[in-house]
Amino acid sequence: MKRIVVLIGLATLAASAVAQECRVEYQRADNMWAAAGRADGELGTETLTLKPTERKVFITDWKYEKRRNDGENYYGSHLRIIRNAGVREVSVTLSEGLGGSDYFSLKPGERKADLRADMREVYCPGTSQEARQLNSPPTIPAPSNLTARQTSPREIVLNWQPVAGAKEYRVYVNPPPAPHLAGRATLVSAPGGHFVISLPATVAAGTVYDGGIEAVGTNGAVSLRALFPRVAVQLAATSGPGTSSTPTAGAGQQCPPGQFVTGFTPTGSLICAAPAR
After folding, report:
1. What percentage of the chain has pLDDT greater than the value 70?
2. Does the pLDDT at position 47 exceed 80?
3. Looking at the domain covering 144-273, what would its CATH class be?
4. In three state form, how does the secondary structure of the chain look?
5. Which pTM was predicted?
6. Which CATH number fits domain 20-134: 3.30.310, 2.60.20, 2.40.30, 3.40.50?
7. Where are the chain's structural domains?
């Protein structure tokens, strides 16, 4: 009887240990050109099993892109699909791909099928709480002390307080320098703190410029977007009745704060007015 009890106890412990393991199934493409979520080639589905607190770092060198894992060497290049096939939450880290670095948790049964990056690490957390803590997106504060002012007829200068831990900044300007650049950011390397908006020669007096900025950390975190004060073009450059052989009308003049240039007098002086509400 005792022998039967011991065997049952050992079987229970073994089953419990298996239940605590993390298990993931993943599919890779064997070439870099495969679209997101499309596991091209003949690599098939590969598996990985980890014990709690165990971590696996994958080989992402593309010279091994056509090799499957062999139980000792695990390759993570061109990951396209991954699924948590176990009963514990797992932590996944992707190397920098089209969408930048990515950190996420997969709950049991959860699947991601829209990937196009290299798999760098899989970690089996000791607890679900640890998994959530590990995979909380890294954060970085937004730039502060934002100012914006027109310093000449052809320039608006943006200034901000540099952010500790930032590797670069994304500066957004509207209206954009060209239509195809609408919504796209200009990158400013750290330490930053200064950006010049070059105004086109044809800019209309009273044109309002909006600006925004995001800090990007060395860990890939992106801050909330901070907004610069809006700036209306105040100084006249090429507008007005002047010609190339005569001084530009309104050159060097400026409207009072809060007013726009709305026109010119016959003598070339500015006509200013408050914005319409």
Report:
1. 73
2. yes
3. mainly beta
4. CHHHHHHHHHHHHHHHHHHHCEEEEEEECCCCCCCCCCCCCCCCEEEEEECCCCEEECECCHHHCCCCCCCCCCECCCEEEEEECCCCCEEEEEEEECCEEEEEEECCCCEECCCCECEEEEECCCCHHHHHHHCCCCCCCCCEEEEEEEEECCEEEEEEECCCCEEEEEEEEECCCCHHHCCCCEEEECCCCEEEEECCCCCCCCCEEEEEEEEEECCCCECCCEECCCEECCCECCCCCCCCCCCCCCECCCCCCCCEEEEECCCCCEEEECCCC
5. 0.44
6. 2.60.20
7. 20-134, 144-273
